[in-house]
Amino acid sequence: MAKGIDFIINVNTGTEGVPVWTKVAGQRGGSLSRGADTFDRTSKDSDGWLENEVGFKNWELSSEGLLVETDAGYTALEDAFMNDEKVKVQMVTAGGNKYEGFAIITDFPVDVPYDDLATYSITLLGDGALNKITA
């Protein structure tokens, strides 16, 4: 059985064509959401049942963790957000499978409570295909 602690989110900090996967420090939790639109193909021949076809797929990756401002992974995400750039991200599962693709950062709040550690959260909206690389 997989444990959440064994899932890691990486960001590509390499140059174009030469990926360098850098773990984002301070991670606590994360979520990979995948979905698909559908097209209704119901007709009078459907015998009273809705019939559907798969349409466009979508994906989103979100994470939260402790804020480590000097971390290369965090810095790469922050730079991409500030400069309106897409980032290549990767989620590595406990079994070693990898899900990766380009994404746009749509939400990137930092929480700085008076009596606790500073944290960040991030939402990355997939831009194009999410590729699965099997371990």
N/C terminus separation? 16 Å
Please trace the helix and strand order, writing H or E for each element.
Answer: EEEEHEEEEE
Assigned CATH class: Few Secondary Structures
CATH topology: Factor Xa Inhibitor
Supply the helix-strand structural class.
mainly beta
InterPro entries: Phgtail_TP901_1 (IPR011855)
Protein name: TP901-1 family phage major tail protein
Pfam families: Phage_tail_2 (PF06199)
Organism: Neobacillus niacini
Walkthrough of the structure:
- The chain is mainly beta.
- The chain has a single domain (4-133), classed as Factor Xa Inhibitor, CATH 4.10.410.
- Helices cover 8% and strands 49% of the residues.
- The protein contains one helix and nine strands.
- It has one helix at residues 72-82; strands at residues 8-12, 21-23, 27-40, 52-66, 87-92, 98-107, 110-111, 119-126, 131-133.
- Strands 1, 2, 3, 4, 5, 6, 7, 8 and 9 form a nine-stranded antiparallel sheet that branches.
- It is elongated and about 60 Å long.
- The model has no long low-confidence stretch (mean pLDDT 93).
Key structural traits:
mainly beta; 9-stranded antiparallel beta sheet
In short:
This protein is 8% helix and 49% strand.
